[in-house]
Amino acid sequence: MPRPAPGGIATVTVVDAPVATPDFYSYAWTPPASVDLRDRFVCVRWSDGVELLAFDLWLRENVVGIGIDPATREGLIDPADLDVNSAAGSACAITGASIDAAGAVAVQFATEAHTHLLHPGWLRHVAEAKHRPASWLPAQTVWSAADRCEPPTHDGPAVLATDDAFAAWINDLVSTGFARLRALPDDPDVALALAARIGAVRDTNFGPIWDVKADVTMAGSADTNSTANTNLRLGPHTDLPTRETPPGFQFLHCFRNEAVGGESTMADGAAVVAALEAEHPEYYEALTTLHWVFFNRGPGIDHRWSGPLIDLGQPGAPLTLRAFYPVRGFPDMAPEDMPRAYEAMSCFSAMAGSDRFQISYPFQVGDLVGFDNRRMLHGREPFSAGGQRHLRGIYIDHDDVLSATRVVNRAAARAALDPSIRRSL
């Protein structure tokens, strides 16, 4: 097929001599306008001003067949074997960079006569930061009670059966922090069927799938190792702050409900944290720096972790709220910090449970509510009458939920491309 001369970003189909990329994705063919050497960098520039400075060692690592295995598309070069010497004549020194007739970026290394081609669409996706962890994910939608009164709701059987419905639901889940499925079948393991579309279930001391049973006809909380299995109110909280990394997402399927009351509650912790930082900066500072020891008191287990109630982690890491008071055991701070730590914690909990941030909604049989366990503050109103309520739950970590979201969004983007500008290896 004829190929236009390089110089613009118009996409064209290239059907012969494909240029392999270091992954298994397809990229539009976007020839750059210019390529030149700048010391140890190859500067790739497109006609719309987008620019990428590609370091020589990094380029060497990403040449398929030298730095990337063609079968696995994983790296081959042990860093200890990299020729980090930048002097001319080293194995990684670049002696030439240009644009070939098809628009690929052509690079010559000092010790090789062969010219290596790099896919311009793959290089552009790096220039546009589409290789970053946040790429192909929906923007976070922070909300308060004024913005919504119930979870975003989707048809359960359709989400289990069709890709488009699944994509719509999981994007709502990641963006808003929670989403509901309705009319799911009478199957105690339906949560596992949903997990099969997402990724691995996070096993814990409660098992891979666990029950939350409350019997309103019985008093007390005997024979249970969790406050969730009682008739008591549960204030806004996140699960398993006793772990170094609490589970990312939680999915609760309502399998049976004969009880009156016990409405589920939810508040967006991201909104609460933002309001706390703006309105009570001294409390925000205390909650992000002062540590508490969280531990499980259940027989036969002894999980413990020390951390702040608002755990910001490293830059770019998901917000982690450690906010389950039944397992918060000890202040892990200097005695003089304890008064302000308790004041700050009380303010945070009051805000999370206020009408400003918290919504409530009933759990119907066949409902499944998924939510970000490290961001959303969930809870339950007390039961007032009736019989049993039986929920079945699973955890799935952020990694798998976000991976599934990227996969469906990239698939949708590829499907939206006109076939004449798609390129498959």
Please tell me the overall pLDDT.
89
How many beta-strand elements? 21
Distance between the termini: 16 Å
Portion in beta strands: 25-35%
Poorly predicted runs are 1-17, 420-425
Q: Any idea what the radius of gyration is?
A: 27 Å
The biggest beta sheet is recorded as:
6 strands, mixed
Helical region count?
Answer: 9
What's this, in brief?
This protein is of the alpha+beta class. The protein has helices at 56-61, 120-127, 156-161, 163-176, 190-198, 269-279, 281-289, 338-352, 398-416, and strands at residues 34-38, 41-45, 51-55, 94-99, 105-109, 115-118, 153-155, 178-182, 210-215, 234-237, 249-261, 264-268, 291-295, 304-308, 310-311, 320-321, 328-332, 359-361, 368-372, 376-380, 383-396. Helices cover 23% and strands 26% of the residues.
Quick tags:
alpha+beta, elongated, 425 residues, four-stranded antiparallel β-sheet, six-stranded mixed β-sheet, disordered N terminus
List the helices and strands and how they pair.
Layout: E1 34-38, E2 41-45, E3 51-55, H1 56-61, E4 94-99, E5 105-109, E6 115-118, H2 120-127, E7 153-155, H3 156-161, H4 163-176, E8 178-182, H5 190-198, E9 210-215, E10 234-237, E11 249-261, E12 264-268, H6 269-279, H7 281-289, E13 291-295, E14 304-308, E15 310-311, E16 320-321, E17 328-332, H8 338-352, E18 359-361, E19 368-372, E20 376-380, E21 383-396, H9 398-416
Parallel strand pairs: 7-8
Antiparallel strand pairs: 1-2, 2-3, 4-5, 5-6, 8-19, 9-21, 10-20, 11-19, 11-21, 12-18, 12-20, 13-14, 13-17, 15-16
Helix pairs in contact: 4-9, 6-7, 7-8
